[in-house]
Amino acid sequence: MSKDVLTNLYSKQAxxxxxxxxxxxxxxxxxxxxxxxxxxxxIEHFHAVxxxxxxxxxxxxxxxxxxxxxxxxxxxxxxxxxETHFLKKIAKDNALEDILLLEEKATEIHDCLNSLKExxxxxxxxxxxxxxxxxxxGKMLALPDQTVKTYLFRARTAFKRVWRDHHxx
Length: 169
Hints:
Blueprint: H1 3-23, H2 28-45, H3 54-73, H4 83-90, H5 97-100, H6 106-115, H7 118-129, H8 134-141, H9 145-167
Helix pairs in contact: 1-2, 1-3, 2-3, 3-8, 4-7, 6-9, 7-9, 8-9
Domain RNA polymerase sigma factor 70 region 4 type: 108-157
GO molecular function: DNA binding; sigma factor activity
Protein name: RNA polymerase sigma factor, sigma-70 family
């Protein structure tokens, strides 16, 4: 693998990983450090990772670094998403239309997102907050597009179920 591959990967992935970490509530300086550490590991291990899987590998390293940071710091950082924007994007049926009118539900939305499995929360943020395509998500997570679609369907369903459980709808 050449220096060009790593440079290209960094130019495409660094800002996506950084934005993702910020959306998860990571402080800017911590997000910068995690991105930097992740790419340092990519440089150190580039010979052991297949080039087509390097993007997903770097993303997973960044997520693991962030989770380790949270464990070490005993910090639970707040999700920083626009809840109304998020709901508008995942609302697929009329049962959630009323929710869109209630912007003051930010805390409840955060509670619902935080009660989901981490993988569902990650997928929903990547798709609906960061507006990545199925293909981009699949590349980051090393999953086929159809698998991403299936997992996102399950994540949306889980979110709706949690929302209904919390709100009786």
